[in-house]
Specification:
CATH class of the largest domain: Alpha Beta
Number of strands: 33
Radius of gyration: 28 Å
Distance between the termini: 85 Å
Structural class: alpha+beta
Helix content: 25-40%
Largest sheet: 17 strands, mixed
CATH architecture of the largest domain: 4-Layer Sandwich
Shape: elongated
């Protein structure tokens, strides 16, 4: 009779990190639903110099354990300081392997779920010596040296699915159970693990809509490290597509909510100092955990995750890999989302406000929602001095190089960008956002705060929306004119944009690109262009906008559809892949970061809405508590682009953000 394959869980970490206690607690919990056995690797250590030999022995009999076979090994008689009696071990349905070396590189292929426990050396030493007393004290350094040699030749922390700092988390098992909803389904089925409910607000209360959404948001979230305001600040403008109806206030009242993060080393769910690895690629990992319930119905948006997709995620659609460096020795995550525990949705059409919370919210929140502030007082803001990554002459030379690529047939359209940066000691990104929302209203405005990153945006462009009934919508912008000084000149500029062959060609090329992007996971025949080359007017610019709609073939393909459309085609050009490679060279391999990416939310019902990160001030708080401010700018280059006109367009696009800050476009050399 064939023996069922046991499920192997490995718990590794240096001495004193809490492996033994955690293994015992985990075994007791899992034993409620399935037989569990613990193999403690300390039984394989032959003396205080036996770590390396124990690794070899452990690795040799792992294939037998995975086959469910009994293994035998010699023990060590610590009193006699010699080899002792032989011991046999038989695995059960679930086998927990605990000890230094459990996640060594050779063992990893056999392990179903790996856990790495870590803690500062002083913390570990104190705990280990308190446990083993004087027996261990003379050999602490000897054993520590062997552990260091093990770590130099193996990567157990990288091999782990879950990393936990036990000096900051007193109950790793509780943390694992909290993260249980995000474990792979095959693993939870093997473990008989009872899936926990997702981190989703369920308590509901309704109020009258506030006069000033920003004032309410500031009062609710002023001291919270994770918060987002997604709103339309252009409610006075015509809204044929219903984009101005809802504003979303999403935040966590906890200091460490669950966060979903993508870096070059993988995709992770973090909860405080615990980090659960989901996989290498972000969009593949996202597809395994979202949507959670596409049959959930709601009359308004209810975010499950709120955050951003950085442009450098382009590596997942076969483009080159660039690290997003924000300061010396500091990189930013390529994607980052947090799970809000409190959501307030303002319905401007019905003049209603709906509160959703995980628990009955604290009294101050309810009182404030019932009596929201009517308006907000502005505060002082230092005027930043920006520098530009390109001179006027340098940018125009790059335009000529882009046109050469077009003449060579390597691309049709190149969305060339540059960056303004500034460093200021004292800055209030939310104050900057409030100034921007007054001076430059936009349908996809957003303010995002995730720890030391704050984003203030007046984006006029939707990247991709997905409704709960699987309807996809993209609204690319291509073509810009500044507003006129009076009504006649303004109408003339608007007419020029609407009829100019170059602008229409730019827009139509991106429409074609997005039709192709959406078609990959759409119901055949459902892709349609609802609007083509319409002109929308904003406070500082006129923009040419098109709308492409489609029906998603299967709700479970939501993450795949998001990947196929990323990065936004209006920020790359066409064809997308070859043009992104050309852009890397033209932009001197400078990471765009959030700029050219997307900010928005993912709903538990499968709905999502993301705006393109343009007209956006990205604010990073540095280690010295100063702020690095960045503003990405650019435009589409075609064969008939005029370099001077394109540079003028870059300056035009900067005005909305810079004027709200009292800043000006930096002086650059003008081409002759």
């Amino acid at each position: 009779m064939e023996t069922a394959r046991p499920t192997l869980i490995a718990i590794d970490g240096r001495s004193g990190s809490g492996k033994s206690t955690f293994a015992t607690s985990l075994a007791q919990h899992l034993a409620e639903s399935s037989p569990v056995a613990i193999l403690r690797l300390e039984d394989l250590y032959h003396g205080w110099h036996g770590l390396a030999d124990a690794q070899l022995l452990y690795t040799e009999f792992l294939p037998a354990l995975i086959a469910g076979q009994t293994v035998a090994y010699p023990t060590w008689d610590w009193a006699a300081d010699a080899v002792g009696a032989e011991r046999s071990f038989t695995p059960t349905n679930i086998l927990i392997i605990e000890g230094v070396g459990a996640l060594n590189d050779q063992a990893r292929e056999y392990i179903d779920f790996g856990i790495w426990l870590e803690a500062p050396e002083d913390f570990r030493r104190e705990r280990a010596l308190a446990r083993d007393g004087q027996t261990y004290r003379p050999f602490w350094s000897t054993w520590a040296e062997q552990e260091q040699a093990y770590l130099q030749s193996n990567t157990p922390a990288s091999n782990a699915d879950l990393q936990v700092n036990t000096s900051e988390i007193s109950d790793p098992l509780l943390t694992l159970r909290t993260l249980g909803h995000f474990l792979p389904q095959k693993l939870t089925e093997r473990l008989g693990w009872e899936e926990t409910a997702p981190h989703r607000p369920v308590w509901r209360q309704s109020y009258q809509a506030p006069m000033d959404v920003a004032a309410l948001f500031e009062q609710l979230t002023k001291h919270l490290p994770h918060a987002a305001l997604l709103e339309s600040t252009s409610q006075h403008l015509d809204d044929p597509l219903g984009r101005n109806r809802f504003s979303i206030l999403a935040f966590s009242t906890e200091s460490h909510p669950p966060t979903l993060t993508a870096t070059q080393s993988g995709t992770f769910i973090a909860l405080g100092s615990a980090r659960l690895r989901l996989g290498q690629n972000f969009f593949d990992s996202l597809g395994a955990l979202w949507p959670t319930n596409h049959q959930l119905l709601s009359a308004y948006p209810l975010p499950l995750w709120v955050g951003y997709l950085g442009y450098e995620l382009k590596r997942e659609v076969r483009a080159s890999n660039i690290s997003a460096v924000i300061a010396a020795g500091t990189t930013r995550a390529d994607a980052q989302f947090f799970a809000p525990d409190t959501i307030v949705v303002v319905d401007h059409q019905l003049n209603q406000m709906h509160l959703h919370s995980i628990n009955n919210p604290a009294a101050p929140i309810s009182i404030l929602l019932g009596n929201p502030p009517e308006d907000r007082e502005s505060s002082m803001l230092p005027v930043p001095t920006f520098t530009c990554a390109d001179s006027a002459e340098g940018y125009q030379q790059k335009i000529l190089r882009a046109q050469h690529e077009i003449y060579e047939g390597n691309t049709y359209e190149v969305c060339l960008t540059t960056e303004l940066t500034a460093k200021v000691n004292d800055f209030d990104p939310f104050e900057a956002y409030c100034r921007m929302r007054l001076s430059s209203p936009a349908p996809f405005a957003h303010y995002l705060r995730i720890a030391d990153l704050e984003v203030a945006s007046m984006s006029p462009e939707r990247f991709l929306a997905l409704s709960q009934d699987a309807q996809l919508r993209a609204e690319p912008i291509k073509g810009t004119r500044k507003r006129g000084m009076d009504e006649d000149s303004d109408l003339a500029l608007k007419h020029d944009l609407a009829t100019h062959p170059k602008d229409r060609a730019e827009n139509i090329m991106i429409v074609d690109l997005l039709r192709n992007d959406l078609s990959h996971f759409a119901v055949p025949g459902s892709v349609r262009v609802t609007r083509l080359c319409s002109v929308e007017s904003y406070a500082t610019v006129h923009q040419m906008v098109s709308t492409i709609d489609a029906t998603l073939r299967d709700p479970q393909l939501a993450a795949a559809a998001l990947r196929e459309a990323f990065p936004p085609g209006s920020m790359t050009g066409a064809p997308k892949l070859s043009t992104m490679n050309i852009l890397d060279e033209l932009e001197e391999h400078r990471a765009r970061g959030l700029y050219s990416g997307a900010v928005g939310y993912l709903g538990a019902d499968g709905a999502a809405d993301f705006s393109v990160v343009i007209r956006t001030l990205v604010c990073d708080r540095l280690e010295d508590q100063s702020w690095r401010l960045s503003l990405g700018l650019g435009g589409a280059i075609t064969a008939d682009s005029d370099p001077q006109d394109e540079w003028d367009e870059v300056i035009t696009k900067s005005r909305g953000v810079l004027q709200s800050l009292g800043a000006s476009f930096p002086h650059t050399t003008t081409a002759v």
